[in-house]
Amino acid sequence: MRLLLGSHGHLASGMATAIEILAGPQPHLTILDAYVDQRNIDEELKAYFASVPSEETVVMLSDLYGGSVNQKMYLYLERPHTYLIAGVNLALVLELCMQSEVSLTTLHQLTEQSRQLQRIVLYDEAPELEDGEFF
């Protein structure tokens, strides 16, 4: 399975840096930082998919549902074994990096799980911790 993480600006490469700190190098994770230089996103996507065997699963991840990066990735959903998740967060990308293969059911579960990690944290709701524990 391969992951293609695309974003407006350097969000994708920033997430990749965080993932490498947390989980080490991820050779199956490709980054697409769009609109940061003269590279053409259409050409980059075309080249990426030309390099991936047709039987291999690709999970595309975009920063913003309906955004231009998401719209460009959407065009590749006709390819077999290809999925697109929009509005990614670090928890989801990290969890996907730990998977060797996924199904649509697994993607639904991981996406829902990552949503549940989003929350407003209020000071008075912080759990009591023992020395050395983290929450």
Would you mind describing this structure in some detail?
The chain has a four-stranded parallel beta sheet, sandwiched between helices. It has five helices and four strands; from the N terminus they run E-H-E-H-E-H-E-H-H. It has a single domain (2-114), classed as Phosphotransferase system, mannose-type IIA component (Rossmann fold, 3-Layer(aba) Sandwich), CATH 3.40.50.510. Helix 1 links the parallel strand 1 (2-8) and strand 2. The longest helix has 13 residues, at 11-23. It is globular, with a radius of gyration of 16 Å. It is α/β, with parallel strands linked by helices.
Give the SSE string. Answer: EHEHEHEHH
Q: What is the CA-atom radius of gyration, in angstroms?
A: 16 Å
The CATH class designation is Alpha Beta
Indicate the proportion of strand residues: 15-25%
CATH H level, superfamily name: Phosphotransferase system, mannose-type IIA component
Question: Low-confidence runs (pLDDT<50, min 5 residues)?
Answer: none
Q: Taking strands numbered 1, 2, ... along the chain, how are they ordered across the largest sheet?
A: 2-1-3-4
Provide a count of the helices: 5
What gap, in angstroms, lies between the N and C termini? 31 Å
CATH level-two architecture = 3-Layer(aba) Sandwich
Named CATH topology: Rossmann fold
Share of residues in helices: 25-40%
Main sheet? 4 strands, parallel
- Domain tally: 1
Mean pLDDT: 93
Task: Give the structural class.
Answer: alpha/beta
Number of DSSP strand runs: 4
Q: Can you tell me the overall shape?
A: globular
